[in-house]
Amino acid sequence: MGRYSQLPRLVPSSRELISRNKMVELKFGRHTVEAFEGDTIASALYGAGFRIFSRGFKYHRARGLLCVSGNCPNCLMKVDGIPNVRACLTRIEQGMKVEHQNAWPTLNRDLFSLIDRLDWALPIGFYYKTMHRPRALWSISSALIRRVAGLGRLDSIASESLPIEYHRFQQTNVAVVGGGPAGLSAALAAANSGVDVTLVDEQSTLGGHLRFENRMRTLGGEESRNVISALSAKVEAHERVQVILDATVIGRYEDNLLGISTPGGLIHLRAQSIIAATGSLEVPLTFERNDLAGVMLGTGIQRLINLYRLKPGQTALVATTNDQGYYTALDLLEAGVRVAAIADTRPEFRSDFDAAVTLKGNGVLVLPGHAIVRAEGTRTVIGGVVAAIEADMPTTKERQFDCDLIAMSGGFQPANYILRQSDVGIGFDSEFDEPVPISSSTAIRPAGDVTGFHNPHVATLQGRLAGLSVAKTLGMQVPVDTISQVEVELRNAETTYRDKVQVRPAPIDSEAGVKQFVCFCEDVTLKDVVQGVGEGFADIQTLKRYSTTTMGPCQGKMCHKRFVEIVSDQTGMSPDEVGSTTARPPIQPVTLGTLAGPGHMAWRRTPIHNRHLIAGAKIIETGGWQRPHSYGDPHDEAKAVRERVGIIDVSTLGKLDVRGLDAGQLLDFVYTHRFSDLRPGRVRYGLMTGDNGTIMDDGTVARLTDDRYYITTSTANVETVEQWFKWWMADRQICAHVTNITAGYCAINVAGPDARATLAKLTDVELEPKKFRYMQVKSGQVGGIPAMLLRIGFVGESGWEIHVPSEYGEEIWNALLTAGEEFGITPFGVEAQRILRLEKMHIIPSQDTDILTTPFDISADWAVKFDKGDFVGSGGLRIAKERGVRDILVGFKMRGSAVPNDGDAVVSESGLPIGRITSARLSPTMGTGFGYARVPVEVGVEGGVIHIRVNGINHLADVTLRPFYDPDGVRLRE
Amino acid sequence: MALLIECPNCGSRDVHEFRHGGEISDLSERKGISDSDLELTKYFYFARNNAGDSKEWWYHSFGCRQWFVAYRNTVSDQIRETEWPEKRLDS
Fold first, then answer.
1. Residue numbers in A near B40 (CB within 8 A)
2. What is the pLDDT of residues A174-184, one digit of tens each?
3. pTM above 0.90, yes or no
4. Interface residues on B facing A, Cβ-Cβ cutoff 8 A
5. A959 forms bridges with which residues in the sheet?
6. A235 vs A84, A171, A179, A201, B80, CA distance in Å?
7. What is the fold, at CATH topology level, of the domain defined by A285-410?
8. Same fold for the domain at A166-281+413-500 and the one at A285-410?
């Protein structure tokens, strides 16, 4: 518990990302830390003196900052309840709550670190070797391992307060991934040639590695940092370039789709062409205790110095296999850190290498032909030992240096993940000691450090060439001269670089100690990997799975290069033969919330929705719509329909307009009975099956004129039915037009003994039983509104469905309520409707039928017309007819007071399930439970008795095949 | 699945706008009332599921709402060609 403020930072620099006059406070565990705006969590904590940031996955060893670029697991923390956040990329905010992970009780004193002393008991593959016997032990041991090993935990409380992450779908001509010198040059060249460019970078500012390092002090005669900021400004201001920062490309998918994780959510970016200017990652060296806090990648140190102006230590030891270590050393000197020595694996001091000469001139001890063999210290570095190399192995000629910082550079791993997720070939370049792209593709082109050339001059030329070539491919006028000029310039620059490049991989000495970590994510050591190869896992893909190397959160970013080198060394295969592991997405860790996005269900509302809300309706979500369940008591509403008059908003019904020469032929084909003989002005019930004869949907078909039909479908099925119609039209070449007009029409059902009297007040259409018969359709004005009146009766009373254009919905609803006031008109909801239709035994497809139900199973034999010739379902229905009905849908009425639930079981006398309840309700008119049951045909007979299991108790019910209410349909026709 | 599909009416669109409608093969050839139970059963329940070239129905549900025919390689997911079903019947 305490308050920490920042230790003095280095003198201000034009490249720093912090605002020194703005302070921000965050919580780190129980501590309060004050830091500058612009700091990341990592730089804020480092600046306040913290050195231990996490504990190892397996051994719980103390870990400090390593890469400072979001590519290693060392700074994963829990931030505002979200686990595994990369502290080095996350900028601080006022009041942010940061907690450590995977340590108990504290980061500094983690009791689990005792495991570190048990390493002899935890060899590679110890899961497979030790945990399989006795079997019963597995559940205990796996629970223990899960408690001790691993990363952060997700609080269920926190997940509720997580931000909603949206998905955005974008497209662009050219996507440039990476905003370093190559990416910026590519974006500018492409945009200047007239194509649209989207530039994506993981950092908060453009510039790539030139933001923080001085690999090349000048570019074309100017200071490289000035060149890059001018280039960034041009790109950001370009009208054809969209720049997306703080955005991580998590994968490249088919047809050039990039998944991009951003703070606001996931972007799906479809690009005609991609330029992969993804750069490269500096990787660690393996030596004893190479994981101590204070052992860092050189570029990580340079980020701390140049972006956050932190003094990383007092005395540093630098170990390198390439030029990069020298640039780090220069920055260290500039930051006032004493450089004890530079151990360089390459055998000779090069007097033509400016950085080396400068360092020597400043009194730095340069040791060519030396490798670091161990770090000293328990949790943080207190010293380091280097040894002379002979015959590719370290000798006993050792030198010790006291230091609190070790800067290492094991060379570069190209960030070639999106290239490997495309058809670009990758091969190993032994001069560069790196895998490089060896074949090209028009869909994706590499540029910059990812090609193995670590030189900003080469990078800018590669970028420019890629940008021009892409523009040309996309049909832009790009002068051939311009392209060939850049090509010549690039070839010269590449040759110059290649002539000078010198890399020498560090020796591999598994005897030098058991704490030489290869994989920091999964705590895999050099000894483990060597042993794995020794046990026969010589193939990199199987060794990966056996050892879990490259399988942690960093997905091999820190360990892949060294992993390949070790396998190559142990097997004698060349790195090209060893190959690489598969680069699957996601390239960087991504939360499930990001992938899932927000809830996608968009609920539709009817034109009368607001009326229902004002009337106090209880709204339910069903079939893709929000509808009134009831306005009060559903039983009162049902009663009102039976005794007086009720109205219900049925705008949710699917509505299809079918017209054209072959409209009748189409309907004859897709429904089980005939419609071509339906007279205009008449309505007929329609039942639709698949070709196998099982029920798909039902509805009403009204013939308005000779060549025009108006069809209603179940609420949830209209989309399916529309596609179904159109599919058969396409397949059979039927000439008709099907239009989905569901949203265009509002529909209201007015039903009950007083429905006619209510409606008569509003319309001139003759409603008398003999003038307007059951199953007829007429057009006319209702309350001055053009309407279509269908006399049908889902709820079993005399009534009309009034269809009007949606914009008149509210008006006609109000008019009906006013007209019916004297009769006690009552609006009713879905629940009352379900009770009423169940009393009439009208089915709801998918509720009372399933994917095996045929029309014969619901006793709708009358709706199947085999005599009309071929139709959809004719084959399946013939088979069903010949086979006979096995399970039948019947009505049931409870003998006692129990009311079953939808889905309850119908059981035999011995208690075995033989059927199920498809719909059940308490009937307000009968006062008992009743409904629909699907049962074997032997018990599904008039007067039969079935047993229904309700809440574990069997109850008796009587079977009926006739509707409970008005079985002869007299009231419908009145 | 991340894929671009060339709708014969609307042009190149994202796969999310489409619905896949099954293969067009000898097994999907329509059978009716006069076909044998065996033929009907094969038609209802079997598909070639060819690993490789496949001729398929696709529906542009978030576009022109029309069915068309696509030739897709089910292994590489490359769509070689799309066309209206009229052409399919002519050929």
1. 692, 875-876, 879
2. 999 999 999 99
3. no
4. 1-4, 14, 16, 19, 21, 30-33, 35, 37, 40, 43-45, 57, 59, 61, 65-68, 77, 85-86, 89
5. A892
6. 33, 19, 10, 13, 37
7. FAD/NAD(P)-binding domain (3.50.50)
8. yes
